[in-house]
Amino acid sequence: MKQLVVSVVVCVVVHCVAAIRYHNETRPSPVYRQLSEFLHEHPKPIGVFTRQTGDPMDIRDTVTMNTNILDNKNFFIETSNLVRERIPERIVHAKGYGAFGYFEVTHDVSQYTKADVFNGIGKKTPLVGRFSTAIENLGGSDLLRETRALALKMYTKEGNLDFLSLHVPIFLYNEPLDFIRFVHAMKRNPRTNLFDNAMRWDFFNLKPQFLHTILWLLSDFGLPAGYRRMDVFPIHVYEIYNKHGERYFVKFNFRTTLGLSNLTNAQAAALNLESPDSFNIDLYNAIAEKKYPSWRLEMDILTKEDLKKVDYDPFDLTRLWKRGTYRTVTIGRIVFNANVDNAFKDIEQLALSPDNLVPGILGPHDEVFKSRRISYPDAQNYRLGGNHLNIQVNAPLYDKTYNRDGMPPVRGNMKYAPNYYPNSFHGPMPYVDEARPTEMLKILHSNAIDLQPLNEFYNEIVDTDAHRQRIADNLAETMINLPAGLLKRSIYVLTLIDIGLGRRVRNALQVLKHVDQEARRNQIAECIANVNEASMRPRNKLQKTYLLPYSHGRN
């Protein structure tokens, strides 16, 4: 009996060890299992291979060897499709990935807005979102210090509502034409075809308001540890109104529920060696493993009377609202719970515009928004065609319009309804929003360059000298090869922002100039190797979390 018990115990132990061994076996993450999972879901071919016209493909027509190539109908069709399967890449935010999800109302905000999507606790609205980097090309890296974005399209009952958000709480400029010049300065040198810091610093010196965003990007807040761990901000001040016609001016904020986390330069370099697509991989895997990323939607609120009392321009996109001048309320949350079936169909063709708004949310009043409501549809007409809003991922839940015909897709093309307005034959008719405010707001903008917000960021939001030194070191890295005259001017502008900042950058440059570059590269390589070794341990021990000290969302 005793021997039998021992045998049973041994068997149980062996079984447990085998189970543990199986559990610990390295298994590819979901992003690398996609094809295997498709095979598992479809143990047999999903159908007969056909031409685009639907006629079945004979196996002899899948090759051209030892045949008359001109008789192979399939050869021309496949070749012509190949050379046309790419569309123009976005000028900015070219690289990105997205997912589907929903918005859920969690708080009553009916006193502020009549927007149906934001009213009714528990109400869920389907949405699609696209995460992206701003400057990198389509095949670039996720892990460089630059602006990141989350662009959302909510399919509401009152039309599509789009929010185009950045991961820093301020915008680059107030003058619409500066966008064109900024993009050219940030893109590649027309002769060398390389990103050129001399171009960038020359532009920043002449347009110092851009340096506020640059300071954010070169700070510890600038490089998030993946798309799931960053807050995002739609930037503009929106005018909203309730069913009584009462107006409020708000900034929307999306706060990650995972908590903010950022990477150091060394961590980013190590992850970049593993894969420049690390952020996309992280997002895909999290959703596939049902660790659904989510963000809390809040809004900072000013009344019309508040606008008269504040001692700053609340419509200035390049600065934060001052603490204590506004109140914050929570609206709901967004959750991404489904990866896309086809990235080109659902993400590359996704067309978003900040002008896609719904009743209860009026367009912002700043000049940048006015320019974007023109430039975004124009860019999408170029990339996707005049009927891009008929593409499935862009189509609203309901639309009745007098726009029709043109290049596909045309969907139902409004069938046989009248194609002109006004008409007497019961074509679509407009409605009257009786709550919509009739009074127009007039804003006078200043052209003066104000460096005070930059100084406040460096001295108040950045709360340690060690952090300030890291900003200076990152600035110096971008300035090491500048021409002497441009370097002098750049340090002068930084000194105008803060004397200490200028001094730190000057000292950091002196250190870099006296460091043997080969030895410095070896040190960086050693540092990356150490980080790679550390990355084999649990990730939460590798990442350092920085919580933003500013209260741009909550007082």
From TrEMBL:
* Pfam families in UniProt: Catalase
Keyword Repeat assigned to the entry: answer is no
Which family is annotated? Belongs to the catalase family.
Which positions make up the signal peptide? 1-19
Q: Where are the transmembrane segments?
A: none
A single GO CC term, please?
A: mitochondrion
Coiled-coil blocks: none
**Stored SMART domains:** Catalase
Q: Which gene encodes it?
A: LOC118276032
Q: What is this protein called?
A: Catalase-like
Q: Which GO terms describe its molecular function?
A: catalase activity; heme binding; metal ion binding
Q: Which sites bind heme?
A: Y376
Cofactor(s) needed: heme
Q: Name one GO biological process term.
A: hydrogen peroxide catabolic process
Name its species.
Answer: Spodoptera frugiperda
Q: What keywords sit in the KW lines?
A: Heme, Iron, Metal-binding, Oxidoreductase, Peroxidase, Signal
| Stretches assigned to the Catalase core domain | 50-429
